[in-house]
Specification:
The protein is globular. The chain contains 14 helices and 27 strands. Strands 1, 2, 7, 10, 11, 12, 23, 24, 25, 26 and 27 form an 11-stranded mixed sheet that branches. By secondary structure, it is of the alpha+beta class. Helix content is about 35%, strand content about 25%.
């Protein structure tokens, strides 16, 4: 056998090379649309043609054909030269193409590509080894070898059965609780390693994870709604789960109950408020957590989305919960707003189960002590009809729902009963970027928010640290373009193609990966982050806003479109 391997070594290498290239290109499917975009722009097209849009798929099919040819060469054509020449040309070209794609634009997505690639490669190698052991004679035939083969087959069958039926050993909490504030309730979210029934106990009263009167038992993620006043008064709760081994039509089997208890500290605005905003962490969990933990006496945490680049797996959709629990330990409330990157990936339509939401949507009002908050969601960052969405985008309808929601708030004015009003949205409402996306809805929402008159609005999305201050001397040139602060950009008269809406309230773009306002951070850096801290003094009717990084340092920030020096803090009057 060893002699045969040596004799056919080059054919084996070609087959393995073809397998690696085919698997890697297929793993890059998360950026295929980006490849199409780059090719389209290089050809001077505004949007990819159908052929260019599907070209990465055609290349993937071709690479699987090349792999099949490499296998044919290994089995039947191994002594001929022309297959080796053909394979050398094809595989060299596509290897170079893959390297170029990674260098040009895939580095930021390697944390999605590489796990997919290595998992598929591992599975392929296991299948190859299994086939060799079962269907090819061993180096030395014996009864022990036959016993090994039988044991291997039995193990594969056992693993397949356990995996196929989702059987796990033991019960445990895989993700600890996060207490999300939605309207006048708390939504307590946690997860288990197996499908289970679940409930939360507050001061002896049980609140269940239900579906139409029946306890849910088919999910591993559990979201349980508790009245705010109950948990605020009890100042503690416990989570419970019971593994559902089998749920039949007329009976079932359950495992042992597991539980864990937590203290809870409700927001108490009598001595003021302190909150911190995390946005656009993009997997920088450690950095975001370290920055938030450096802020003392935190009353609540705001997460404005884009915790990841896409929600392709459950572990991606749980990153916001990991950040939230690392900071809060399940002991203080969290407010959540969806980012545009949480719309991308296989788990996008399940996100509402994992975070604070209302009727499977991500806009709602919330109250925390003397705080009235509004969470809004602009959705994707292009207007409807953008080619990248493949005709699935209907965000204009979603925007219209939220416009009616804001109109209802303006009409009923519930916020007037509270001392502090806060708005949270991933994509900035006060800022129109150079592409001029969402122009109409941002104008409408700005007008409605002007009537609500919030004390502060917090945003993300731009990966910047920008203040939008009421009455600021924003600079525009003769063509209506925003002019940069020369100290910020280092070039007098430099312009930006967007503009600010006619807002009458203060706001901030709240966070980015890095340690300063302008430093460049590598795609694999997960430890450096800057977010926004706010301290509110209701007695003096002022609030202090400052940016703090993962090292605990206060970050100096320029107002990008107003001439002047950088500031370490912004002291603003309440409305």
């Amino acid at each position: 056998m060893l002699e045969n391997i040596k004799k056919n070594l080059w054919s084996i290498i070609y087959a393995f090379w073809a397998l690696i290239i085919a698997l890697f290109w297929f793993a890059m499917r998360v950026i295929w649309s980006g490849i199409s975009k780059v090719l389209s722009e290089a050809m001077g097209e505004k949007a990819p043609t159908p052929f260019i849009l599907n070209l990465p798929l055609y290349i993937s099919i071709l690479l699987w054909v090349v792999l099949a040819f490499a296998v044919v060469n290994l089995v039947w054509l191994k002594h001929k030269k022309w297959p080796k020449i053909t394979l050398t040309v094809f595989l060299s070209v596509f290897t170079m193409a893959s390297v170029i794609v990674v260098i040009v634009g895939a580095v930021d997505y390697l944390y999605f590509i590489l796990p997919k690639f290595f998992l598929s490669l591992l599975v392929s190698i296991c299948i190859i080894l299994f086939a060799l052991l079962v269907f090819f004679p061993p180096i030395k035939n014996s009864k022990y070898c036959m016993a090994f083969k039988c044991a291997l087959v039995a193990l594969v069958i056992l693993v397949s059965v356990f995996g196929g039926y989702g059987v796990t050993l033991g019960s445990r909490f895989t993700y600890e609780p996060v207490v999300y504030a939605v309207e006048d309730t708390y939504q307590i979210v946690f997860s288990t390693n197996h499908s289970a029934t679940a409930w939360v106990e507050v001061d002896g009263e049980k609140y269940y994870d239900l579906f139409a009167g029946s306890m849910k038992s088919a999910d591993t993620v559990h979201k349980i709604t508790v009245p705010q006043e109950k948990l605020d008064e009890a100042k503690g709760y416990s989570i419970h789960a019971q593994k559902m081994i089998y749920r039949g039509p007329f009976g079932g089997f359950k495992g042992a109950e597991i539980s864990k208890s937590y203290d809870f500290r409700p927001v108490n605005s009598s001595d003021g408020l302190v909150y911190y905003t995390v946005t656009d962490a993009h997997h920088a969990r450690k950095g975001a957590v370290d920055a938030a933990l450096s802020v003392e006496n935190l009353d609540f945490l705001i997460i404005l989305g884009d915790s990841v680049g896409m929600v392709e797996y459950e572990k991606d959709v749980q990153v916001s919960n990991l950040i939230a629990h690392d900071v809060t330990k399940g002991e203080i409330p969290v407010v959540y707003a969806r980012g545009n990157h949480e719309i991308k990936g296989e788990y996008a339509e399940q996100l509402h189960k994992y975070v604070g939401s209302k009727n499977e949507s991500f806009y709602y009002w919330f109250v925390l002590s003397d705080v009235f908050g509004i969470t809004l969601d602009l959705g994707e960052d292009h207007n409807d009809g953008w080619w990248e969405y493949y005709g699935t985008d209907k965000f204009t309808l979603y925007h219209n729902e939220q416009t009616r929601f804001l109109e209802e708030l303006v009409s009923t004015k519930p916020y007037e009963s509270y001392s502090y009003t806060l708005v949270a949205c991933h994509i900035p409402i006060q800022f129109v970027n150079s592409r001029k996306d969402h122009v109409e809805v941002k104008a409408i929402w700005t007008e409605l928010l002007n009537q609500i008159n919030p004390d502060l609005a917090v945003y993300g999305h731009q990966h910047d640290l920008y203040p939008f201050l009421e009455g600021q001397e924003t600079m525009y040139d003769a063509k209506g373009k925003l002019v940069y602060n020369s100290q910020f950009k280092g070039e007098e008269g430099r312009t930006y193609g967007g503009y600010l809406t006619d807002y009458e309230f203060n706001g901030f773009i709240a966070g980015r990966r890095g340690t300063t306002q302008i430093d460049k951070i590598g795609a694999l850096n997960r430890k450096d982050y800057v977010g926004l801290a706010v301290s509110v003094d209701l007695m003096s009717q002022t609030q202090k806003c400052w940016f703090v990084n993962s090292k605990g340092d206060v970050v100096s920030v320029y107002n990008p479109f107003v001439e002047g020096p950088a500031q370490k803090e912004f002291v603003l009057d309440l409305k």
